Automatic annotation (TrEMBL):
GO-annotated cellular components: mitochondrial matrix
Residues covered by the FDX-ACB domain: 383-474
Organism: Larimichthys crocea
Localization per record: Mitochondrion matrix
Coiled-coil stretches: none
PROSITE patterns per UniProt: FDX_ACB
Protein name, per record: phenylalanine--tRNA ligase
Family: Belongs to the class-II aminoacyl-tRNA synthetase family.
UniProt catalytic activity: tRNA(Phe) + L-phenylalanine + ATP = L-phenylalanyl-tRNA(Phe) + AMP + diphosphate + H(+)
Amino acid sequence: MLLLYRSQDKGFHVEKALVHVFTRSLPYTSAQILQLEEAVEGEKVQYHIPVELSDYIFRGFLGSGSVHPVRLVQDFLLKGLQEKWSVSMMTKTVPFLLTAKQLQACCCDVDSTHWYWIHPFQKDLNFDPPTSTDKETFLDGRGRTDTRDAPSATCVISDKADRVRSKGAESLRSACSLDVDPEGEGGLYVLRPSLIAQMEELLTKKEGLINDAVSHGENEGNNHSVEVEGHIAQGSCEGSNSLTSLLFGISGIVFGNVPISLWALPSFHELLLRGVFPSECKPIKLIGQSLEALLTPYGVSLVTEQGGLRLMAQPMGVVGRVFVGNSSDISHISITVSLNLDLLAVLLFSLPDWRILWSRDPRFLKQFALRPLPGKPFQPFSLFPEHISFDISFWTGPTWEERKFHAVVREASHGTVEQVKLIDTFSHPDLSQTSYCYRLTYRSHTRALSHTQALQFHQCLESLLTSRLEVTIR
């Protein structure tokens, strides 16, 4: 039962006179310290996931049989695209970690200022990674794939963040160092900001298999090529080669070291599709028309930009892109589609906030148990979640990095801060110090958040800022 009460000292027409109170809510729990082990370019690497990202790891939203809205949106999009093209979803697990060189080689359009830099604490150069074969899954009659959201990493250690804080462990600071030069630090690692690098590698291996089969006539390779050709969509662009008119897809979680704001997601699920089409088919226009037919009813508009399309929606902004990739054959065009499944889920199911997608409350998934079609609005837990604002002021040294501040805010507030606004700065004329004043807005759509609880989070933030970033609270 939901309980509404009227403030005794305010009329109903006054702001905040009507306040919503949760009658039941999951408790707030301490963040997890995750130590992962992955094989990256033939090396076994052990590293820590930044604490503020721990709740986004190994959630299995895209797993087989999942009814999470992110999975429902993916199935909806793939089913719609399947009406014109065959779609082959790759199910091979790929690591969260990439080398800086991998990203620089193929992701020039991905903003490097939003990368999560990772410094591994152990590397095994003699590691012999287990061999595995790439798998493809073609869509069934309902546009769904039977893929498994199996993790590529091994979780070695899981511990409570507050236990680490009590020891003051320096090594477990948020791994988002910005004092490195990516040009000169080729050995550094990055949490994948996109799946483009993995898509490039998987398709390169696939093309190699097909070319080897054609040149050497190997039975295994020929069978693979025939399998792909057998799923070429029939239409105006049919049959130029084994990859034409076939969309290869991969989906998974990606990460962005972005400042806190209403629609800035530090982690989301990306659906990436890649196809090679004859130039005369105008594939960008065709794919744009298909996406427009699927998403326009939900408020998505397509904006033409140089080299592709940008998918826009209000109030979140960009929810996807369609762009041209490099192709060695001038008679064909390589097209890539990148879609933010989390923001699209917010739109298609009328969610009040993207953070509710990560709720562990069983009432959330219960609303999607019957796999509703997009357009059915979500029934929120809280009708009037209250905004609670606190200001924080502090002195910093000359090497202040605001992005680290946002990471600590996410950790200390358990993700309840939805907006951070810089309201004042002052540089001391005699000392190499600068004073910053920020206004933090706390609000939660999934858990009870009282003024007292928000104040506790804010006091924890002051403590972490003092110990982690060595600031002086004013």
